[in-house]
Design goal:
The complex is a heterodimer of chains A (311) and B (284).
Chain A: H1 3-22, H2 38-57, H3 62-78, H4 83-91, H5 97-106, H6 113-125, H7 127-130, H8 135-148, H9 169-179, H10 194-197, H11 306-309
Helix pairs in contact in A: 1-3, 2-3, 2-5, 4-5, 5-8
Chain B: H1 11-14, H2 24-40, H3 49-60, H4 66-78, H5 84-89, H6 95-107, H7 123-142, H8 182-191, H9 203-210, H10 212-224, H11 228-242, H12 252-262, H13 266-279
Classes of the chains: A mainly alpha (311), B mainly alpha (284).
């Protein structure tokens, strides 16, 4: 990719992210139930998908990462720290959107205790293999199980359902414990960003609703991301207003949440997630900007790795 | 322009809410079930029934005995489940514990002559006789020192017939010529679920052993109807033969896990925990 093209891609992506951030309240649930506003629910999950991909790819600057974190925090708070996803999957076990949506958050370290247990059960029951979903949905479920750490192998979605009739309870107990080895071990470590730590490159995860553009209902009343108003000012001089449930972030610390070095986010991770010992943790995020370190610049050029420019 | 589809109907929200604990007996039974559940998980106190009775007597004060009577009824309502923690963990109940159970049996003595099985006799007294028999038998086994007048074993249940319509009730044929459909048969087995404990083997257990398919159907039906209390009770009859390596037509471990995740109420959770122990599953 040429430098000019990369710059253009970065500009477009940056403007789109700014637009998403600026209009995030348009997709807020505001305390409603998911069944009461499915459009907002869909928009929240797609926003989370976009933000999590920004963090996963690791090629964005510090400002983009900060925006993505704010978007994820906002969406997670709107979903009541994952409780709404949990209730949806609990009440409608055949609806797979909660699993797929949770994967966007789990990719960057958000966890919900009940949801982890439900997804373990979801994977053990083989719902995705038993029920006849369309192929792209099956692929999305398989990817969600892989991201959340509940997959049972590389070709999980290719395997036929096991014969239930031959399964005794003892064997089932064995199958269940073998299929879900992480249930008793607590949370697995925060998944390291896939682009750097994953040795085998996997196909890009599919979108949650791949055939529809994200937030289609917004674009009818607001300008498209490409013609959106200019980016908001530097977050250090004009801090964004975070969601009301999130404690206000001190100025200068907006870029201080590394994607995987971060301590467990309070409120939705009862057991501390062990910090990944690999050095990949800091390859996606500049050194912490809080404290004595100088804060990173507001706009980081896309050329080159961000990490190489950090002290 | 965006088409707004009507929101899908939330079946869980529109379904009938869980049975609310309104009566004092049910509340006391729930409390006793929570005590037994804690004991089964190894987190409870030293006694289950005795502490419940003592608290009820203490709450009544010197004059009234309403709470004590209620607690006594709760023990009889749970039947052998009140002692399930001792059976499954291998502990020996304390002397005051067996004395408390014996007190409840003396306060409401079991029927000396159990009625005939449902097609010939009335069903509720017959079920009550079975539950009482299970409690007395387990108590005699756990605390063998003091003899307890054991009532005679009631007669076995009608058999399940897979050829008759599923809702066919044995009450329609008083002569007992034909069996029952699996729906009423599995529901009755669910009412007898407190007998599904290790160490007991009666005609009811024999019926469960031979009717695994009907039990699996009944448990699945209750699960699909979101009646998790009944599903948990029927599943106990599936977990009991599974401990003997009897092949089941469904995955009992997954069924129990589903009930554990989606069910509620202490009695339901106690049934789930007993199933966990009988299936040899780790506590999840």
């Amino acid at each position: 990719m040429s430098t000019a093209l990369a710059q253009t891609a970065h500009d477009v992506g940056s403007r789109a992210l700014h637009w998403l951030h600026a209009h995030r309240q348009a997709g807020a649930l505001d305390g409603r139930d998911l069944a009461g506003d499915m459009e907002a629910y869909k928009a929240l999950l797609e926003t989370a998908l976009a933000a999590s991909l920004v963090l996963r790819d690791g090629t964005s600057g510090s400002e983009q990462c900060a925006l993505a974190h704010e978007l994820l925090d906002f969406a997670w708070a709107q979903l009541k720290d994952g409780t709404l996803l949990y209730e949806r999957l609990l009440r409608q076990p055949l609806a797979t959107d909660a699993v797929e949506g949770y994967a966007h958050f789990a990719r960057v370290g958000y966890r919900h205790t009940g949801m982890e247990r439900l997804i373990t059960h979801f994977a053990a029951t083989g719902t995705a293999r038993t029920v006849e979903y369309v192929p792209n949905r099956r692929l999305a479920i398989a990817n969600a199980l892989r991201v959340t750490g509940h997959d049972q192998g590389a070709d999980d979605w290719e395997r036929p359902a096991p014969p239930r009739s031959a399964c005794t309870a003892r064997a089932a107990a064995h199958c269940l414990s073998a299929a879900a080895p992480r249930t008793t071990a607590g949370y697995r470590p925060t998944p390291a960003p896939a682009s750097k730590s994953d040795p085998s490159p996997r196909p890009s995860p599919p979108c949650c609703w791949p055939n529809r553009p994200p937030a289609a209902s917004w674009t009818s009343t607001t300008p498209s991301p490409a013609t959106c108003r200019p980016a908001p000012p530097c977050p250090r001089t004009a801090p964004f207003s975070p969601s009301p449930t999130w404690p206000p972030t001190p100025p200068g610390c907006l870029a201080s949440r590394p994607a995987c070095c971060a301590p467990p986010r309070h409120g939705y991770s009862p057991t501390p997630m062990p910090a990944s010992p690999q050095t990949t943790c800091c390859t996606h995020w500049p050194a912490p900007a809080c404290g004595p370190h100088p804060a990173p610049a507001c706009t980081t050029p896309i050329s080159g790795s961000v990490c190489s420019a950090t002290p | 322009m965006t088409l707004r589809r009507p929101p899908p109907r939330d079946w869980a929200a529109s379904a009938r809410p869980c049975r609310e604990v309104t009566c004092a007996h049910c509340a006391s039974a729930e409390l006793l079930a929570s005590r037994a559940l804690e004991a089964l998980k190894g987190a409870g106190g030293s006694t289950i029934v005795a502490s419940l009775l003592q608290e009820a007597a203490g709450a009544d004060g010197p004059t009234g005995a309403t709470g004590l009577v209620t607690a006594t009824g709760a023990v009889r309502q749970l039947g052998a489940d009140a002692l399930a923690a001792y059976v499954l963990t291998g502990q020996t109940p304390a002397p005051e514990e067996s004395a408390a159970v014996r007190l409840t049996l003396a306060a409401l003595p079991p029927a000396p002559r159990p009625p005939a099985a449902p097609p010939r006799g009335p069903e509720p007294p017959w079920i009550r006789a079975w539950i009482d028999w299970g409690l007395v038998t387990l108590l005699a086994r756990l605390a063998p020192g003091t003899p307890q007048a054991s009532p005679p074993m009631p007669s076995g249940p009608p058999h399940c017939d897979s050829t008759v319509p599923r809702h066919f009730s044995a009450a329609r044929t008083p002569q007992g010529g034909s069996g029952e459909g699996w729906v009423p048969w599995a529901l009755r087995m669910g009412q007898l679920a407190s007998l599904a404990l290790p160490g007991l083997d009666t005609p009811v257990h024999e019926a469960a052993r031979s009717g695994a398919e009907a039990l699996a159907r009944g448990a699945t039906r209750s699960l699909l109807r979101r009646d998790f209390v009944t599903a948990a009770r029927v599943t106990r009859w599936l977990a009991w033969p599974a401990a003997d390596n009897v092949a089941l037509p469904l995955d009992a471990a997954l069924l129990v896990e589903d009930i554990a995740l989606r069910g509620g109420g202490n009695r339901c959770l106690l049934d789930v925990e007993i199933c966990h122990h009988m299936l040899g599953l780790e506590d999840v």
